[in-house]
Amino acid sequence: MATGINAWIEDELTGCRLADERLNRRLSTLLDQMAGAMGASIPLACQDWANTKAAYRFFSNDRVSEGDILAGHFNSTRLRVAATTGPLLVIQGTTEFSFQREHPEKIGQTFRVNSGQDQEGRFRMHTVCGLLMHASLAVTTEGLPLGLGAVKFWTRTKFKGTDALKRTINPTRVPIEQKESVRWLENLRRTTELFGAPDRCIHVGDRESDIYELFCLAQELGTHFLVRTCVDRLALGGDTTVDAVMDEAAVQGVHAVAIRDGRGHVSTAEVELTYRSLRILPPIGKQKRYPALTLTVLHARERETPADRPRIDWKLLTDLPVLSNGDAVEKLRWYAMRWKIEVFHKILKSGCKAEEARLRSADRLVKLIAVYCLVSWRVFWLTMINRSAPDADAGIVFTDREQESLDFLVPNKVPTRPGSNTLGICLTKLAKLGGYLARGSGPPPGNTVMWRGMAPLIDITLGSEIAPQLVGN
């Protein structure tokens, strides 16, 4: 494995499927430039016209696709997954990238919004220009992101006829292949095949993933799922529903959870746990195609609604057994990890500033976002490895020169021998370069200070390497 704050690129591009070695070198250069100037425009990251023009040519090259760019990363994710043991959470999530363009038809649309009323009182509808991305992020049960396993990009143009179709027939009778929701099944299949350990994988999704076809596909592939349900499905013999059965079930335990309000204040809330195994039936329109399944229903809800925030009311569905309060708390903790995919999306948008890109067509933007996905994962990994393995050898991330630069810029309070810093110490110093205060009562460094600290460290280390060549010449 290559070491160095920017040398990880070599590992992530191993197995890349680009057409020739020249394109591989250009992708490596682009990753190096964008990681070193995270959030900067392409011209600023590339520094001169020759490199900027080469970047534009790369993104417009028909021989390059987002799948080619991400292929090496997917392979590296598979290797990292194989190096771990225990359950693996495969978190799926969708995000939207909105853009302002003079010719939005070259990119596509995400949704339509009400822009208010005109002078005659008629409502005006505004079509938002943009792309959608659905990703699967592999995460350990301790919260360490191992990488992406599948990514799908699209616009609403492809599925624009689905809504019209739903107005004429029952939505449950629309084939899943004609719906946007097929992305959940595609990513589940791809990641299960990629990781090669279906029984280890628990595919986690929000209420959008409450899809009966997904449950059946998981059973077919021998893998598992944990989703938040939004549908009150038919249960038992078909004469009742899940909610009706669970409302009559006795509370089996109480669990305390930490809650953070909009102002960042942390408090504790007690949720009642109710869980049981139920026979779940497919929707009426699908009962000829899909069998009934025996699944576990887990509800966690507060007794009363607080005055200052919404009541906690989680309704989860899984094919995993829940036989005790400990099992129930474990599944709740696993589902809470779903937020990791939202953090990843935040790094893409706030750190890489993907929505500020000025490329003019969808295919070029998709390739650029694919590059940003690699940079964003690396920042996320650095943040979380600092929390899960702070005592590891700093050499797995930093070169000796980088460690020397960090020691010079952020000296230890107590002198230590060279090379004795742990990974946690070096990553905290990196975060300090990005504005982290490292107060004793404060939280550990987050993604923002990590990506802010990367650029100065790369520049300073480069300066220390070229300085001896300049002095005395």
Topology, please?
Layout: H1 9-12, H2 21-36, H3 42-46, H4 49-60, H5 66-82, E1 88-98, E2 109-117, E3 123-140, E4 145-154, H6 162-166, H7 182-195, E5 201-205, H8 212-221, E6 224-228, E7 234-235, E8 240-241, H9 242-248, E9 253-260, E10 266-280, E11 293-302, E12 313-318, H10 325-336, H11 339-351, H12 362-388, H13 400-409, H14 423-433, H15 447-470
Parallel strand pairs: 1-5, 5-6
Antiparallel strand pairs: 1-3, 2-3, 3-4, 6-12, 7-8, 9-10, 10-11, 11-12
Helix pairs in contact: 2-12, 5-12, 7-8, 11-12, 12-14, 13-14, 13-15, 14-15
Structure commentary:
- By secondary structure, this protein is an alpha+beta fold.
- Helix content is 40%, strand content 21%.
- It contains 15 helices and 12 strands.
- The protein has helices spanning 9-12, 21-36, 42-46, 49-60, 66-82, 162-166, 182-195, 212-221, 242-248, 325-336, 339-351, 362-388, 400-409, 423-433, 447-470, and strands spanning 88-98, 109-117, 123-140, 145-154, 201-205, 224-228, 234-235, 240-241, 253-260, 266-280, 293-302, 313-318.
- Strands 1, 2, 3, 4, 5, 6, 9, 10, 11 and 12 form a 10-stranded mixed beta sheet that branches.
- Strand 7 (234-235) and strand 8 form a beta hairpin.
- Helix 13 packs across helix 14.
- The two termini are 36 Å apart.
- Mean pLDDT is 87; it is low at 159-166.
